[in-house]
Amino acid sequence: MAHHIDIQHTAKLARLKLTDQEAVKYEAQLAKVLDYMETLEGHDLSGVELTAHATPIYDVWREDVPVEGWTVLRLWPTPPEKPPGSS
After folding, report:
1. Torsion angles phi and psi, residue 13, rounded to 5
2. Could you tell me which residue, 12 or 5, shows the higher pLDDT?
3. pLDDT higher than 80, residue 78
């Protein structure tokens, strides 16, 4: 099915400036994508389990283990002398 897409309006919404050649090219490409979406809609997917990713995603975080923090002397081994009168 042929789709009419106002590609210049779509580009404006995306804050893009397209030349006339780019508009013709992208309008044709977007029409092909929409045509393919119609092809996919024609398939019965009622028995297919919904997924967010094509492959399983596992928790990649390491266990949060407390460790000793940094001391001032470790960060700054030779701090400047304190000004006179400061505590």
Report:
1. -60, -35
2. 12
3. no
